Amino acid sequence: MKKTIINLFGSMAQLFFPKLCVGCRGVLQPYEKTLCLKCELGLPLCYFTPHKTNIMHQRLSAHIPVEYTTALFLFYPKGIIEQLIHQLKYNGQRAIGVLFGDWMADQLSDSFFEKCTAVIPMPLHQKRQRKRGYNQVEGFAKQIADKLAIPVCNHVVWRKKNTRQLAQGKVQNRWEELADAFALNPNHNFTNQHWLLVDDVMTTGASLCACAKALLEIRGSKVSIVTIAYRV
Ligand SMILES: [Zn+2]
To 5 degrees, how large is the angle CA 40–CA 42–CA 45? Predict the structure, then answer.
């Protein structure tokens, strides 16, 4: 009886306040979550995960010693992934991070990434995090950590420099600007970890490399990297 009443209220709420797809704003069907099936089927998956090396690995390993790398999607300017990441970052649509985190976590279990021992969400500068109210990669990172049964470590590395968004700065200056942007928390007590550094989009790779470099200063560290999307 109680279940019937809950279902009835659920159906009425969906009738008056329908849940909308974060991609196309169409009404979601009861079996759809966050994204409608049509939007979901149109997402540009990138299939990097089963391979020890891929284009992302080649680009990052030119700058830092990195173990494994993968991304869930290819990022095309003005494409659906750009739109969804914008929703996640600036419009409070945190469910997108959780949904993609679930999908990424499924790919990472039973893969090389099971060797990772702790997840690091790419830190935001505290001013930017305060303004946004949250770190957009935390939901994505948590789903991965839960599936791999390893902790999320938010306080090992921090962003000491509030760098500009990429669109505002020239790409060639990006590497110099980010080189000393991260610092280790002197009070952390982690050693011999295989860190899984997680971010939203890999564009130049400058911030991933700078953050990974800081983590690699910790004794016995290895770093693998996962992003929601890889910019083509
Ligand atoms: Zn849709």
Answer: 85
- Residue ranges of the domains in the chain? 43-231
Contact 135, 143 (CB under 8 A): no
Sign, Cα dihedral of 39, 41, 43, 49: positive
Q: How many Å lie between the centroid of ligand 1 and the Cα of residue 232?
A: 23
Dump pLDDT digits (tens) for 207-217.
Answer: 999 999 999 99
* 102: Cβ contacts below 8 Å, ≥ 6 apart: 143, 147
CATH code for the structural domain at 43-231 = 3.40.50
**Centre of ligand 1 from the C-alpha of residue 100, in Å:** 15
Burial class (CB in 10 A: 0-12, 13-18, 19+), 24: middle
Distance CA 141, CA 120 (A): 8
CA 20 – ligand 1 centroid, Å: 8
Question: pLDDT digits over 50-60, tens only?
Answer: 999 999 999 99
